[in-house]
Specification:
Length: about 220
């Protein structure tokens, strides 16, 4: 099972791809989270990446491709994986093809989580994140138990730099310009499953599980 989740930031692809990875018992590989961890730990890769991330821009392809390649060759990814946030450009999609072809494989399905821009803008500007564990809350319908603190570890929640209005708009523009062509790239191979991402988390998840089952992807 090798799945890719694509969708603009705020579409809920992080939440949904994590649930689908658990459902199929394969690792959830999230490039944004890997980059944020590297930035927090101030590794050379993290320092380079953070200047792009804070502006809401994409980190250069060569940096992300090398990081991803290292991750998907780890033993836990041999049975499959769910990619979240990669590929985000055509060169990344081509690099992924090459990596997988080297082992005689490829991507099995691409799930596009579709949400209109107005809904995304509202969701992202209300989003608050735990800088320690990465859990995500929002100020409208998924509050932490104690206001402003993470339910898991009590860390004060923050608004990510790239969840502020300027970077949000830039990220949406980049999605339409750079990442929408990735959906067309996989659509040309008949691999894209479009799922309506508006609604309750559980409902969107059921739509994805049913759509995958209809294509023959079932949990063994
Ligand atoms: P995300 O958490 O997926 O929204 O990613 C946060 C930020 O990390 C993005 O705005 C980019 O700056 C960077 N990033 C994550 N994945 C990629 C990728 N595949 N290519 C380039 N930049 C990425």
């Amino acid at each position: 099972m090798r799945f890719v989740f694509v969708g603009p930031q705020g579409a809920g692809k992080g939440t949904q791809s994590d649930r689908i990875a658990r459902w199929f018992r394969v690792p959830h590989i999230e490039t944004g989270k890997m980059l944020r961890t590297a930035a927090r730990e101030e590794t050379p890769l993290g320092i380079k990446a953070s200047e792009f991330m804070d502006r809401g821009e994409l980190v250069p392809d060569d940096v992300v491709v090398a990081m991803l390649e290292e991750r998907i060759t780890e033993p836990d990814a041999h049975r499959g994986f769910v990619l979240d946030g990669f590929p985000r450009t055509i060169p990344q999609a081509e690099a992924l093809d090459e990596m997988l072809a080297a082992n005689g494989g490829g991507i099995d399905a691409v799930i596009s989580v579709d949400v209109p821009d107005e809904v995304l803008l509202e969701r992202l500007s209300n989003r608050r994140t735990c800088p320690e564990c990465g859990r995500v809350y929002n100020t409208t319908d998924h509050h932490p138990i104690e206001p402003g603190r993470c339910n898991e570890d009590g860390t004060p929640l923050i608004q990510r730099e790239d969840d502020k209005p300027g970077p949000i708009r830039r990220r949406l523009e980049i999605f339409h310009k750079e990442t929408a062509p990735v959906i067309s790239f996989y659509a040309a191979r008949g691999q894209v499953i479009h799922v309506d991402g508006v609604g309750r988390i559980e409902d969107v998840q059921s739509r994805i599980v049913s759509a995958l089952a209809a294509k023959g992807f079932r949990r063994s």
